[in-house]
Write a structure and sequence with these properties.
By secondary structure, this protein is mainly alpha-helical. The protein has two domains: 51 residues, no CATH class; 115 residues, no CATH class. It contains five helices and two strands. The longest helix has 21 residues.
Length: 191
């Protein structure tokens, strides 16, 4: 890997691809170029927002010595370890699950605009996927927890292309199904 110069930037250059390390470096390069070549304030603001999102990857996401699982008391490699976590269901990146829960369970006829598709329900909030990187163990344990604790419907609002421990999630789905739990996934959440 070496230093590359950038002669010009087009909108296609902002379609940043590659691995996370390359994304961080490309964001820095493009931002530096734009600042020196007449970019609008909006261009700079958009890139700075993107850079803020990916800059933590250098310290945390790309650091093989950083173990974020200890925060919730989990040994990721031990699939039998089912009881870990914390009560921070709000935290950063909780907007998607909150939005989906609102579609289902928003209080009806309260003059606030939203009307949930299911009236008079009780929501069991389980934050399974931090920042869009679901782990099969977390998904499987959440499905089992919900099924064991009386859930009748589980929102499966997640999806990914590669699942190294897919069989663990499949077993949890079969378990929930055996208890009569309906599991619902949106068409846009992977296959």
């Amino acid at each position: 890997m070496g230093v590359e110069s950038i002669d010009s930037v087009s909108s296609e250059d902002l379609e940043i691809t590659g691995n996370e390390s390359q994304q961080v470096m490309q964001a820095k390069q493009v931002m530096t170029f734009l600042k020196g070549n007449g970019a609008t304030e909006k261009d700079i603001e958009d890139l700075e927002n993107y850079y803020e999102r990916v800059s933590g990857l250098e310290e945390y996401g790309l650091n093989p010595d950083f173990d974020h699982r200890h925060i919730v008391g989990d040994d990721y490699d031990d699939l039998s370890d089912r009881f870990y976590g914390n009560n921070d269901v709000i935290g950063p990146g909780s907007e998607h699950g909150t939005h989906v829960a609102g579609i289902v369970g928003a209080v009806r006829d309260n003059d606030l605009g939203a009307k949930g598709v299911a009236g008079n329900i009780e929501l069991m909030i389980l934050r399974t996927v931090p920042d869009g990187d679901e782990r099969e163990k977390d998904v499987a344990n959440s499905i089992r927890y919900a099924a064991e604790n009386g859930a009748r419907v589980i929102n499966m609002s997640f999806g990914k292309g590669y699942s190294p421990q897919k069989e663990y999630v499949d077993a949890a789905v079969r378990f929930a199904d055996s208890l009569g739990v309906l599991m619902v996934s949106g068409a846009g959440n992977g296959s």
